[in-house]
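Final report, closing paragraph on structural work. Over the funding period we assembled a curated collection of sequence-structure pairs, and we close with a single example.
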Amino acid sequence: MKKLAFVTGGNKGIGFGICRHLGLSGWNIVLGAREESRAMKAIENLKSEGIDVEGWVKLELTDMESIENAAKKIEQSWPEMELLVNNAGIPGNMALKSWETPIVDIQQTMKVNFVGTFSLTKRLMPLIIKNNGRIVNITVPSEVSPYWHPLAYVASKGAQNEMTAIMAMDLKQNNINAEIFNIHPGPTTTDLNGNMALPGFHKPDTVGEKVAELINDGKNHNGEFIELYPIVQE
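Its predicted structure, as stored:
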């Protein structure tokens, strides 16, 4: 029986690395992306390695209608979906001091990384529960790092982390055979940080491989915060 995963932001960066290594380990993949051309390019690259990509879903996390349409398409086309990887997100302005951050930057980053992610998770949770599945959130620690602490991004991920913890507790307390947990990739060279490549940084493909290994390890990680690589001093 096939295993099917839906990965948001799966057309590039860490999301593409996760799709690649889940696919190489036997998962069927559905990509979430904002643009068709980028989604089709990613699908072409994945299929060239023999990965079974079932299709893609247009998803804009700032748009509730887009989220609803994406959820409906998944329910109708892939009712066996048992893994949701919430990877898509935006960085906000990482160059500003905390008190210089415009309110609009806080609002937009929270809207995508927390409100959008919560809305998609809420909408797909019944399917995950039905299939005894899992939700994996790609995130960063809530604790402030002295080396890297953009306010809008960290605040949005902090809210996402609390969402994970509370949902995990609700699943456990209600004896529901599904799980949700966080993975912190650590410093990774992606366009989110301007392709920063400092000592201690890893490539998206390396992170994707580690994420796939965790997903495939056969263990229950409900409520856990798993750190792949620590943030290092720049």
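The CA atoms of residues 136 and 166 lie 14 Å apart. The longest helix spans residues 103-130. We thank the funder for supporting this effort.
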